[in-house]
């Protein structure tokens, strides 16, 4: 049986190896915070970390991440940066429908882990793959600056 | 079909009618509603006090407010709770919100008669008195209970932030301590609501109640529902609207691991599996032969060609003032323009889905439910049961923009067909993949508009002719009686037929082709999504031809519309209208304005753009002024307007569903691109202080954006954009 390391826990997994990580997380492990939006890495709603780097879980087969450390939104508060990003999102009431926000937050955490003082241009580049149909972009940008301020 | 009907004269008249604002119905504690985040409907903690259908107070002091409206991002839950908590004098930190069950006897939209549902930016407006009265009733009963317990006059008791107190005797109690006693008080028949100067939540900052769960992955959407034994259904739909299954071969699909069953339904073939991925693989392995003898086979170009031809002849009159013929005959100058607006998909981030199961006494539904009563009736009709036997759990919707209020209950009935075809043996989660969602129709209808203005010798607009051609959204639905008058669907002409400018001669008419087989529906801001564009860009063009400033000319024709004038002046002032824009190397820059009322809210926007030599466009800044009556939650108003600007800009820059020989050409976000963060302009939102009743804010920010940007483009380049979405090649230097 396959085994996945998600949020520091090992899960046995009875799925076909070509199953995208997204569906293994959602349907099998019932970690539903990671969202399905497009299935073709166009929207970023399924962004998770694989060994610390952001990946679109909808196009990553389970077979490619065996033995690697996967982090999802459910464990985003496990790092100082993750906590700061979530706090900033709440302080500024970024969310509207909320469906894309797990992915937005994971991408924002990834950005701030690499770059503690991102410019608007850095934010636009790092967040370009995360779509928000409610267009909460004004606040996403502000919240990333706010989190950076808190982390400084 | 269903016998569900919306009863109301018109959305435009709702301000006059307060539509039976009855307070509250006693609700047994056992009938506690389901809430988002919960698959069942269990009550958390002991319930001691439930004065009405909107409020429950637990012995632990928790305050649960029940929302009859869907939270799809627009902040409804927080807004409704703000109103109730204000009059209850609750501690905002202890307030939680639950979605109401489907029950129009208690939770109807007061502007829709006996129907429950969310739409037309009515949630705050129809609940304004209802929710405050529900809170005031709770407060009254808590005070009565305290007065009895402490043997003091009720008039000496104060309530603040969830604490009931009597200062003279220095006694105080939390809501929880008084809950049981309050439950024994009688529900008051007369209530006094607060004076606005005493508001502590309304007009102040009450943070969103869904922020925490929407930032840690805990918020539950329909897509996240898992029931024991549940099967996931992915459906092969016909490639053209109106197609049917001729035959299918499920052998290969059934060999996919995890696939359990394949069933035929009215609109395709459903593959059921233990998980979504297996169902998708099964669906992809199906072979289906389609009967397309009655399918719709026209392409977009052919549809527009037909619309342009129809526009040559008079249509049904939607509005008429004076007599346009002599005005045009005597005109010194005639200005004209023709516009094409494409079909638009809602493309919410959560593709459509629905969870359903048959139960011993009916059926049970989990859905981002936007049209409770309509869907209840549709399902009751389908299963041969009573509407009350359809139990609906209203979950958060990952966006909707109107799509989940489908007047034909399309995806909900599809789930029901699968439940029935499988004998009701397992709960079903119907999942539309992105491409299924994109190609399923129920689009914002495509429209063609023609406009003509007569300018007389003194430079005044002496005549205005506006003709619209496009499909009706409400014909053949439960909304028809409310929306169609004298052959004119108000949702086709709103914003055009009620042009605010005082013009002596005006004629607005409409063609409604009924043989176009593309399903259409309301899309955030409905008719105003195209009428604001044509009227406001055309007005700008007329002002230019007449040699007048577009803001000054508008103001001169708005004498009878002070709220329109108010937002226009505010936006112009804040944007620095009339002051030159800072030059940017290599860019043509321009500023444009647009003004539009929709859903009884007034919005003006001033956009600043930069256009590069290759025609590429950057919207740098949008200044917006809004008058939506009492600002219940100012931060949410700003948030909605920011989002509306991004939503509208997406449509202007990229939004287009096209058909080729009846097939939808788009499928995913590569072919139907959404705005990305780098394209989002700077946004400033100014709210006009107002004591008028609150009106909508979910939609009204959308309509003025595209015309303001188009007018800015015209100022920068001299080019008028009459076909959306924008083709940047039209803007090459």
Overview of this protein structure:
- Chain A has 152 residues and is of the alpha+beta class.
- Chain A has helices spanning 21-28, 80-91, 101-114, 120-126, 137-151, and strands at 2-6, 9-13, 47-50, 53-56, 69-71.
- Chain A is globular, with a radius of gyration of 15 Å.
- The model of chain A has no long low-confidence stretch (mean pLDDT 97).
- With 733 residues, chain B is an alpha+beta fold.
- Chain B contains 18 helices and 29 strands.
- In chain B, helix 1 runs parallel beside helix 3 (123-150) and helix 14 packs parallel to helix 18.
- Chain B starts with 46 loop residues before the first strand and ends in a 16-residue tail after the last helix.
- Residues 6-45 of chain B have low confidence and may be disordered.
- The chains are: A alpha+beta (152), B alpha+beta (733).
- At the A-B interface, helix 1, helix 2, helix 3, helix 4 and helix 5 of A face helix 6 and helix 17 of B.
């Amino acid at each position: 049986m396959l085994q996945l390391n998600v949020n520091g826990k090992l899960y046995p997994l009875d799925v076909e190896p070509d199953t995208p990580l997204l569906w293994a997380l959602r349907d099998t492990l019932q970690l539903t915070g990671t969202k399905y939006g497009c299935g073709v890495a166009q929207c970023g709603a399924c962004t998770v970390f694989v060994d610390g780097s952001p990946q679109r879980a909808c196009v990553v087969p389970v077979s490619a991440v065996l033995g690697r450390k996967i982090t999802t939104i459910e464990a985003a508060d496990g790092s100082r940066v993750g906590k700061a990003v979530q706090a900033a999102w709440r302080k500024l009431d970024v969310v509207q429908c909320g469906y894309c926000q797990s992915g937005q937050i994971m991408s924002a955490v990834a950005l701030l882990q690499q770059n503690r003082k991102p410019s608007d241009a850095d934010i636009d580049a790092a967040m370009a793959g995360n779509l928000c149909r409610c267009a909460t972009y004004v606040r996403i940008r502000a919240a990333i600056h706010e989190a950076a301020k808190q982390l400084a | 079909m269903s016998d569900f009907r919306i009863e109301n004269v018109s959305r435009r008249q709702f301000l006059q009618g307060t539509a039976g604002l009855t307070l509250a119905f006693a609700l047994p504690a056992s009938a506690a509603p389901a809430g988002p985040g919960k698959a069942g409907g269990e009550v958390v903690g002991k319930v001691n006090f439930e004065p009405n259908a909107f409020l429950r107070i637990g012995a632990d002091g928790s305050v649960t407010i029940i929302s009859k409206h869907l939270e799809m991002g627009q902040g409804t839950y927080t807004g409704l709770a703000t109103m109730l908590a204000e009059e209850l004098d609750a501690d905002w930190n202890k307030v939680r919100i639950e979605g109401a069950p489907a029950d129009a006897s208690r939770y109807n939209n007061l502007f829709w008669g006996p129907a429950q549902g969310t739409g037309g930016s009515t949630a705050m407006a129809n609940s304004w008195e209802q929710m405050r009265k529900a809170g005031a009733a709770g407060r009254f009963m808590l005070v009565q209970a305290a007065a009895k317990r402490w043997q003091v006059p009720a008039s000496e008791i104060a309530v603040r932030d969830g604490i009931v107190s009597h200062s003279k005797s220095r006694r105080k109690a939390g809501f929880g301590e008084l809950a049981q006693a309050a439950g024994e008080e009688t529900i008051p028949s007369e209530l006094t609501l607060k004076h606005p100067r005493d508001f502590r939540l309304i007009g102040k900052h009450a943070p969103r109640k869904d922020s925490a769960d929407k930032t840690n992955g805990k918020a539950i959407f329909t897509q996240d529902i898992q029931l024991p034994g549940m099967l996931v259904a992915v459906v092969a739909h016909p490639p053209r609207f109106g197609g049917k299954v001729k035959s299918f071969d499920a052998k290969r699909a059934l060999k996919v691991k995890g696939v359990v069953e394949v069933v035929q339904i009215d609109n395709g073939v459903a593959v059921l599996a233990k998980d979504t991925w297996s169902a998708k693989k099964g669906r992809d392995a199906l072979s289906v032969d389609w009967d397309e003898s009655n399918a719709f086979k026209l392409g977009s170009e052919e549809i527009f060609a037909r619309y342009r031809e129809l526009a040559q002849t008079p249509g049904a009159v939607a509005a008429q003032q004076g007599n346009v013929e002599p005005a045009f005959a005597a005109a010194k100058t005639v200005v004209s323009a023709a516009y094409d607006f494409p079909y638009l998909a809602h493309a919410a981030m959560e593709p459509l889905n629905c969870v359903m199961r048959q139960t011993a006494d009916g059926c049970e539904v989990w859905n981002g439910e936007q049209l409770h009563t309509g869907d209840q009736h549709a399902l009751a009709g389908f299963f041969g049961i009573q509407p009350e036997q359809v139990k609906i759990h209203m979950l958060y919707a990952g966006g909707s923009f109107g799509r989940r209020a489908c007047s034909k209950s399309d995806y909900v009935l599809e789930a029901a067909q699968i439940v029935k075809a499988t004998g009701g043996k397992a709960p079903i989660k119907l999942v539309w993949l992105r491409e299924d969602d994109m190609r399923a129709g129920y689009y914002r209808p495509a429209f063609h508009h023609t406009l003509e203005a007569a300018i007389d010798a003194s430079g005044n607009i002496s005549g205005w002719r506006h003709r619209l051609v496009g499909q009706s959204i409400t014909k053949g639905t439960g909304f028809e009686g409310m929306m169609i008058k004298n052959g004119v669907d108000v949702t086709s002409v709103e914003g055009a037929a009620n042009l605010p400018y005082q013009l002596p001669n005006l004629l607005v008419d409409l063609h409604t082709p009924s043989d176009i087989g593309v399903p259409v529906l309301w899309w955030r801001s409905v008719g105003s999504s195209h009428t604001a564009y044509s009227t406001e860009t055309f007005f700008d063009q007329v002002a230019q031809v007449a040699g007048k400033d577009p803001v000054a000319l508008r103001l001169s024709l708005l004498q009878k519309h002070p709220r329109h004038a108010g937002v226009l002046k505010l936006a112009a002032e804040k944007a620095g209208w009339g002051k030159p824009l800072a030059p940017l190397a290599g860019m043509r820059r321009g500023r444009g304005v647009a003004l539009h009322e929709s859903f009884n809210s007034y919005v003006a926007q001033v956009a600043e753009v930069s256009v590069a030599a290759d025609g590429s466009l950057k919207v740098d800044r949008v200044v917006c002024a809004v008058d939506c009556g009492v600002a219940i939650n100012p931060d949410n108003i700003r948030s909605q307007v920011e989002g509306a600007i991004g939503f509208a800009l997406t449509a202007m820059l990229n939004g287009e569903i096209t058909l080729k020989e009846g097939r939808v050409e788009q499928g995913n976000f590569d072919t139907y691109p959404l705005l990305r963060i780098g394209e989002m302009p700077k946004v400033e939102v100014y709210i006009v202080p107002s004591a008028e009743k609150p009106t909508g804010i979910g939609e009204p920010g959308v309509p003025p954006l595209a015309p303001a940007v188009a007018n800015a483009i015209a100022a920068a380049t001299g080019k008028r954009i009459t076909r959306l979405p924008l083709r940047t090649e039209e803007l090459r230097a």
